Amino acid sequence: MRSWFSLLAAAALLLAPSAGAQPAPAASPTPEQKEKPAKKPKPELTDAEKAARDEERENAVLESLPAGETYTGLRIPNFSPTGKLLMLFAAKSARRAGDREIEMTDLNIEINNDDGTSFRVQMAHSVFNLDTRILTSDTPTKISRDDFTIEGARAEFHTKTRFGRMLGPTTMVIKSENAQ
Q: What whole-number distance in Å separates Cα of residue 84 and Cα of residue 66?
C-alpha cells in the first residue's frame, strides 16, 4: 500500500507545476471566439450643434486670413446636417477689411435647395461680417436660376437664415419654356 501511495505522490509532484514555472499558454481563440471590444457610440449631434460646428469651421477659415494680405481662390463649402452641400462660396480674392469683416471680389455663391433646384449669386464686390453672418454687396448683384434672372444695384444676404434681398433698382427676367 505504501508503494501505491508513493507512486501517487511522485506522479502528483511530477504533474504539479513548480513554484517558478509559468503556466502553459492557452490556445489562441479563433476569430469567431474573440470578443471585440465594445465601441463607444459617438453621441449624435443635434442639427443646432452641427450648424454651430459648421459656423465655427467657416469662422476659423475666415479669421485665419491675416490682416493686410490678400488671399486668392477662397472656397468655403457649407453642408447640411446630413452632409448635403447647401452652399459653396468661391471668391477670386479675399482680405481682412476690419477686425470682424472680410472683403471679397468676384464672389460666386452656389446655393442648393432641398427640392433639387439650385441657383447662383454673383457679386463683384462684397463684405462679410463674421458676427452678424450678413454678406452685403455695394455693387450690382445677379441671382440666376434656370428659369429666372434677377439683377439689382446692391444686395444683402443673411447666411444663417438663407434669406436675401436686393436693394436699389432691380430687374427680373422670367424665362418660360412655353414662350413662342
A: 30
Specify the CATH superfamily of domain 73-174.
Lipopolysaccharide (LPS) transport protein A like domain (2.60.450.10)
- Its pTM stands at 0.62
Per DSSP (E only), the strands in 97-162 are 101-112, 118-129, 134-137, 141-145, 148-158
pLDDT tens across 57-66, in order?
666 766 677 7
Please report where in the chains the cell 477686425 appears, as a residue. Answer: 99
Render the burial of 14-33: b for 16+ CB within 10 Å, e for the rest: eeeeeeeeeeeeeeeeeeee
Helix (H, G, I), strand (E, B) or coil at 180: coil
pLDDT in tens, 107-145: 999 988 888 889 899 999 999 998 898 999 999 999 999
